[in-house]
Structure formats: C-alpha cells, structure tokens
Amino acid sequence: MKITENTLICRKQNKDTIISCGNSVEHERRRNGQSDSRMIENDNINTNKPTERMLERILSSGNMNEAYQKVKRNKGAGGVDQMEMDELLEHLKTHREEILTSLLKGSYKPYPVKRVEIPKENGKTRKLGIPTLRDRVVQQAILQVLSPIYEKQFVETSYGFRPNRGCHDALKKCQEYANQGYWYVIDIDLEKFFDTVNQSMLMEILSRLIKDNRVLSLIQKFLNAGIMDRGMFIRSDVGVPQGGPISPLLANIMLNELDQKLEEWGYRFVRYADDLMIFTKSKRAGQRQFQRVSKFIEGKLKLKINKEKTSITRLNQIKYLGYGFYRIKGKCRFRVHPKSITKLKDKLRETTGRSNGMSIEGRKTKLNQIIRGWVRYFKLADMKAIMQSIDEWLRRRIRMITWKRWKKVRTKFENLRKLGVAKEKGMGMG
Questions:
Q1: Would the N or C end of the chain have less CB density within 10 A of its end CB?
Q2: Neighbours of 310 (CB within 10 A)
Q3: Tens digit of each residue's pLDDT, the chain (430 residues)
Q4: Within this chain, do residues 86 and 155 fall inside the same structural domain, yes or no?
Q5: What string of H, E and C letters represents the secondary structure of 316-352?
Q6: C-alpha distances out from residue 205 to 57, 161, 216, 255, 257, Å
Q7: 316, 346, 374 — which closes off a domain?
Q8: Considering only CA atoms, which of 157, 163, 127, 143 is closest in space to residue 58?
Q9: Is the pTM of this model over 0.70?
Q10: Are residues 346 and 403 in the same domain?
Q11: Pair 289, 343 in one domain
C-alpha cells in the first residue's frame, strides 16, 4: 500500500519536486540484490526505535523534497560554492542521482562552511558557519528524521530550538519558579559553547540512539567539513558550526546530558539553547549547587564555564532573553531590560538616519516592522511607561530629521503651512 500511495504522489509532482519515486535509494538496493520488501519496511520504521536503515528514511523522496521546500522558505545566503537560491532547484534535479548515490555509498563530501561574523550586544562578534545550499538540504533532511526521535529524550524545561516552544515559555517558567520562592539564580555562561563542543563526546552520545553508522559518518563529515574564512581554510576538529539546520539540534543533544543530570539531582532550571539558569532559595544553596554543576560541565562534558560572566544573584539583577524581572506584592513580574531598550533605539536611529538612502515610505514601513516585532516579543513585560517614552523620543527624532531635510527657509514655511500651522507662527519657525 505504501508503494502504491507513493507512486500516486509522484505522478502529481509539481515543478519544485527534486526527487521522484524511482530514486537512487531504490535503485541502489535493487542493484545490491535487496528486495522491495525492505523498502516497505523502511516506510514503516517506528521513530521510537531507530534502526540500521535510517539513511533510507532520510533520503526518501518525501523527506528530501520537504527538506528542499524548507530550505527554500528560509531563504538565506549561499555558501562557498556561490550558488544562489534561484539556482538550487535546477542543480538538485540535474545532480539528483549523483547526490543520492554518493550519500548511500558514503562518498558524499560536504563543502566547508563560509565564515560570517555578526555583531553582538557587547561589541564582539558571533561567528557563523554558513553551509552551501545543497549541504543545507541534506542537513535539513537529517534534521527532519532525527528531531522527532530526540524530542522524546529532551526534558520539559529545555526551550530553545524546539517545536512549539519558545522564549516566552522559558520566561513563564522562570516566573513560576520565582513565585514558588526560588528568587536566587545561578546564571551560567558557557564560554564559546558552539566553538568548543567535544566532537568525540557528541558522536558517542549520538551513537546511543542512531544505529545506522552511515548516518553517524555523515554527521561527522559535516562537523569536520572545515571553515573558509577570507579565502583561508580552517580545520574544524572541535565545535559545531552555527548556521546549519542541524546545529541547534546537535547543541540540544549535547546539553541534554546536563539537563538529565540536573533533573536527577532535583534542581529547578530553565535552559534556552546555551543560556542556562538554575533557581535556588538562597545564595548559599546556589553556591553549593554551582560547585556540583560546574564539576559535571567541565569534567564530564568537557565544556568551559566563563567564571567572569557566571553569577549567583537575585533574579531581579539579571537579564535573560532580553527581559528583566522584578517583584511586587510578592509576585514576579517582567520588565524590558534597559539594554533591550538601548538596542531598540539603536535600530530606530539607524532607520531614521539621513544617510541610509531609504525613501520616506520605506522608512515608515521599516519603522513599523521594527516596533511591531519589538512589542510582540516584549508583550509579557509591563511597558506602558516605556512605550510612551519611546514614542516621544521617536517623534522628536522624526521631527528633527524632517526639519533638517527641508533645509531652505521657504521650504520650511510652505510645509508648515500645509500641516496647518498659522502663517505668523510658520514665519517665526521658518
């Protein structure tokens, strides 16, 4: 029945379909003397019990086509091969058999990732590794098969890069702990986490559930593909490059080892990617817990804690996911952290600047996008007074920029009259 349904689907393929039903996976199995029944079994694999034929599931027509559509929707720049998104579909169709066969035989070779640096709030930069579009499709196909398997392994208080979870859920959990009396936090900073992940340990953790050595080998190839930085090749024997579809999942799999241990110890914690907070009722309890946790992180997971940025303090003295916290009448409430307000004003200042080359309409559209997105993200916070202050600041800035743009006295006077300003007052202002 599975094969019949798949055949019917293939007859209705649209122009964005990259892999047909008669793909290299089936062809390779027939060439090796394997029966069609193996393919039917492959369609019925239970995600609770990964088998030794996981690669066939990854390379199935449905999964690969879904991966391509996902990469296409996410857009983004190309990698070191300089292929752009509008070239990807034709490339995949032309090289389909070659790509699938090389993946099955284990001869697929990912390109090095392209180093891109983006600015951080502290003035430093975050280093990303952007895979080629073709490699991104393969990574996305792997992610779609692995994600449901590992979702069942993750703990409830892990929120980053997981389906149907997000920053607001993590923040509400923080609020819940605080309202239970856990007002002190161990705010742990993992130093350059993505750049320092121990690949051998990560592969050992992956091998506990992934029983298909070909999939493990493929993941290892992506980790070891290297980095191209300004024309120079850099080896990548350590770390997980940020920027590929599979990177967040690998990070969660690695840090799930810590999550499981914290649950075993009965600690209350919230983790969003590598941002971890552990909640306690006193500073002394926090100091005891930190000694235990740091020993596990640095000794077992071979990661490094940035002691200078790690703190044990009251919840109202930290910034988490852009928010601040305060207590009123014994209850925890949210506020917008001052650094988040500064960041917003920097964006608004850049958008309203005279030298950015944007039209008036373009600026209005961009300003609306920025403000609406910002308000949507900080909707949990008490920010009526903040929004009033930002509104007044932005109005003053727009008036100042508009005034300078009019330049000539006559232009100022005429525009003020159009806005309904009295003649005498307009002459005085112009």
A1: N
A2: 16
A3: 333 334 333 444 555 676 654 444 444 444 444 433 332 233 443 444 544 689 999 999 999 999 999 999 999 889 999 999 999 999 999 999 999 999 999 999 999 999 999 887 777 788 999 999 999 999 999 999 999 999 999 999 999 999 999 999 999 999 999 999 999 999 999 999 999 999 999 999 999 999 999 999 999 999 999 999 999 999 999 999 999 999 999 999 999 999 999 999 999 999 999 999 999 999 999 999 999 999 999 999 999 999 999 999 999 999 999 999 999 999 999 999 999 999 999 999 988 877 767 777 888 899 999 999 999 999 999 999 999 999 999 988 877 766 655 555 555 545 555 656 555 554 555 5
A4: yes
A5: HHCCECCEEEEEECCEEEEEECHHHHHHHHHHHHHHH
A6: 21, 19, 11, 11, 9
A7: 316
A8: 143
A9: yes
A10: yes
A11: no
Instruction: Read off the amino acid at residue 249.
Output: L
Quick one: tokens of 196? Answer: 């320092």
Domain of 263, in residue numbers: 53-316
Identity of the amino acid at 91: H
Task: Tell me the one-letter amino acid at 129.
Answer: G
